[in-house]
Amino acid sequence: MTRIRNVCFRITLIALIISITSVTMTGCWNRREPVGLLFPTLLGFDIDETGEYIVFAQFPNPTVASGAAANGGGGGRSLSFWVNIGRGQTPYSALKDLALTTSRLISLTHVTVLLISEKLARQGIGPIVELFLRNHELRLIVRTAIVEGSITDLLESELPLEPTPGLGMHRMLEFIRDERSQIPEGNLLEKLREMAEPGHDPMFMRMTVLPAAKEQSFTDPGTTQGEMAKPIVKIHGSAVFRKDKMVGWLDDHESGGANWVLGTISRATYVVAAPQHDCLVTIELLQRSREVKPLISGDEIGVNVKIGAVARVQDITGRIPVDRDDRETVEWLTQEVVGHIENDVQLALSKARELGADVFGFGNLIYRKEPRVWEQIGEDRWHELFQTLKVNVDVEVHVRRPGLVISSFTPR
Amino acid sequence: MLFIIRSTVSIATLPVLTTGEAAQDAWASSLLVVPGTVLIVLLVGGLGIKFKEMTVVEYSAELLGRPLGAVVSSLFLLVFLHFAATDIRVYAEVLISGFTPKTPIPFIVGIVIALAVIASQLGIETIGRMADVLTPLFVLFIALGILGCLVTFDIQHLEPVLSRGSMPIISGALTPTALGAKYLTLAMLIPNTTKPSKALTYAVVSVLLSGVVLIAVATSTVAVLGADLSRNTVFPFFKALRSVRITQLIQRIEALAVISWGYGVFIDVSLLLYSGAKGLSQLLGLDDYRVLLLPLAVIWGFYTVESHDTLLELMHVYRPSTLIPFVTVMVFVPYIVLWIAYLIRVRRSHGESG
C-alpha cells in the first residue's frame, strides 16, 4: 500500500513540475498570436547615396498561399507574397521602419535568405553581420548571396513556379550547388567563420538579376502577367571578400577552380573539344578527394594541392568509340579533363591574386598546420606573400563510366 | 545530483571558452578543470567524511568554537546565496535574450525559486529523487544537442592544437575550476547520505562525468562556431545549437540546451536553497529548516533580481579576477582554517593518547 502511495506521489510530483514548467516556461510573457504575426522569409539589404540603409522584406501572404483567396473576390489577382521596404540609419532601424507600414507584428524567426546589394557589399557588410549575431530572432543558417543588379527589380517580380519567391530562392541557393558546383558553399555562419579565421577570405554566392525581372515586375501595369514567365535571376560565380568588404567577382570558371581547391565540388560539367573526331564531349565530374598540404623548405613557402575526381561521359556530338579496349581515347579524355580543371584552378589563382584575397584559405592552412611559420610570416604580411606563393596542383581524374551505352549511336 | 549541478555550468555560459584565452584549445582547458575540481572536492568532502554525522555548520562550531564557527558558516551560507542568485539570473537572461524579450526578470526568477521552495520543503530525498528522474533526460538532451552539432562539426576549427603554450589553457580553466566551489553543498549533504563514507567517491565520479560533458560541449561548440565566434558569444553552446540546421524539419535544437539547462537550474537552486536553509537553521538553533524556506526565498529572489543591473555586469561575476578572489576568501581560506583546526585537534588527541 505504501509502495502504491509512493508511486502515486512520485507521478503527481512529476506531473506537477511538468505542468508548471510547461505553462510558465514555454511562451512569452505577453500574448503573441500567430494570426497577428508576419514572417518574412527573405531579407535584402541595400544602401543609398546618403548612407541610409534600405531593407527589403518579402512576406508570404498566408491567405493566398493557403489557396483561400487565390484569385481574389473581385476578379483582381492577389499575390502570394508582399514586399515592404524600410529605411534607416542602421540595418536594425531600417527593419523597425517596416513596422510603420505593416499591419501585423514582424517576426524574423523564419528568414532563410539574406540578399546584399553589390554596393553595400563593397562598402562593408560588417553592420549586417553585427545585426545577425546580436539579434535573437535572426539565425546564422540563412543562405546569403550578393546581388548583381537591382534588388528592387528582383523582389518585385515573381519567380517562375514559386508562389513565395523567398522560399523558392532558398531552394535555388540550396539545390543549385548540387547541380552546378561553380558557386561557393554557404550559409552565413560558414562565411563568418572564414572571415574570422586568419589567412582566409570568404566567397559568397553571386546572384545576377536578369532583364526579365524588370519586365515582369508586378508593380508595373504593363507587365507580362498571363504570359509565359521568364527566369528573373541567375546564380553563378562568386563575390570575393577581403575582411568584410567585397573586392570583386569570380566568373563560373574561376569560382569552379577555387571550389576544386576547397574540395566543395559535388558535380561539375566540362565540354571537351575533340578536333580529331570533329565533335564535342560533355563530361560530368564528381570530386572524390582533395588534399592540401603546406610545403615549407627553408625560407620558401608553398602549397601542394591534390585533387581527385571521377568522370562519366554525358553526351558526344559526333562518333567516338569509348570502348574498354580503346585505352587511348579514355587516356586522351582524361588528360583533357585534367587540363580543364588545372586551367580553372590557375584562373582562380590569378584572379584571387589580382583581387588580393586568399579565397583558398592557404594562409589558414599554414596557420593551422605550421603555427610557428605563421607567426614568423605575420598575419599582416600574408596577402603580400600570397602573391608569390608557390602552388603545385596535381589533378587525378578517372573516366569511369561511358553512360548507359558504350559506343556512340550509329544510324544506318 | 552533484553531476547535474556541475554540468549545468558547462552548458550555461561555457566559461572555459568565454572567460579565458583558451579559444580552440578549450578542450584542453576542460581537461585541466577536472583535477582542479577534484582537489576542491577533496578539500570539502575530505573534511566532511571525518564528521559523518555533521554538516559544515556543525563541525565549524566544533572545530573553531561557536563564535568563529558562526562566522565561517555565515560565509558558506552567503556562497550558497551567491551561486543560486547568479545561476537563476543567467538562466533568466538566456530566456530573455534568446526567446522572450518582454518577460520581466522577476517572473522567471519567481517561478524558479517557487519550484525550488516546493522541492526543498519536501526534503533532500525529494531533491535527490528528482535529480534521479531528470538526470537521464538531462544527459539525453545534451547528447542529442552534441549529435546535432556533428552536422556542421568542422575539426579544422580545433587547430592549431596547443600551439600557444600553457598560459591560454590555464586562463580558460580558472573560472570553471573556481566554480567547483559549488561542491560546498557536499558539506551539507554528507550527513544525509546513506553511506557517508562513499560520498567522496561519488563526488569525484560526478566531477569526472561532468568533465566529459564539459569537454564534449566545449569541443562541439568550437567546431561549430569557430574559435573566434565562440569566445565572443554570451551563451556559446546555445548559439552553436541555434546555428545548426539538420534538415528542414529538424532545426532550432537550441531548445534541447535550454530544457536541460532548466532541469539543471531547478536541481541546482533546490539544493542550494535547501543547503542555505538547513545551514541557517542550524546556525540559529532551530529544529526545522522548513520555516526558513519562504523568508529565504523572498530574500534570494530580491537578491537575484537586484544584484546585477545588466547582463554585462552579470558576466563580470565569471571573470577570474572577480570569481577567484571571491571563492578564495569565502571557501578556500575558511576550509584551510578548518583543516588546520582539525589537524591540530587530531595531533592533540594523538599526543594525549600517546
Structural features:
heterodimer; A: 412 residues; alpha/beta; GMP Synthetase, Chain A, domain 3; 2 domains; four-stranded mixed sheet; B: 354 residues; mainly alpha; Amino acid/polyamine transporter I; 16 helices; 0% strand; globular
How would you describe this protein?
The complex is a heterodimer of chains A (412) and B (354). Chain A contains 14 helices and 14 strands. Chain A is an alpha/beta fold and 412 residues long. Chain A has two domains: 34-250, no CATH class; 265-412, 2-Layer Sandwich (GMP Synthetase, Chain A, domain 3), CATH 3.30.300. In chain A, helix 10 crosses helix 11. The N and C termini of chain A lie far apart (94 Å). The model of chain A is unreliable at 68-75 (pLDDT under 50). With 354 residues, chain B is mostly helical. Chain B has one domain (2-347): Up-down Bundle (Amino acid/polyamine transporter I), CATH 1.20.1740.10. In chain B, helix 6 runs antiparallel to helix 14. The A-B interface holds A 10, 13-14, 16-17, 20-21, 24-25, 27-30, 133, 136, 139-141, 187, 189, 192-193, 196-197, 367-369, 371-372 and B 95, 97-104, 107-108, 111, 114-115, 118, 122, 126, 129-130, 133, 152, 154, 156-157, 159-160, 163-164, 224-229, 242-245, 251, 262, 266.
Query: What is the name of the CATH topology of chain B?
Result: Amino acid/polyamine transporter I
Count of β-strands of chain B: 0
The CATH H-level superfamily of chain B is Amino acid/polyamine transporter I
CATH class of chain B: Mainly Alpha
Secondary-structure element pattern of chain B, one letter each: HHHHHHHHHHHHHHHH
Spans of chain A of at least 5 consecutive residues whose pLDDT stays below 50 are 68-75
Structural class of chain A: alpha/beta
The main sheet of chain A comes to:
8 strands, mixed
- Count all strands of chain A and give the number: 14
What fraction of residues of chain B sit in β-strands?
under 5%
The percent range for helix content of chain A is 25-40%
Largest sheet of chain B: none
Strand content of chain A: 25-35%
Helix content of chain B: over 70%
Shape of chain B: globular
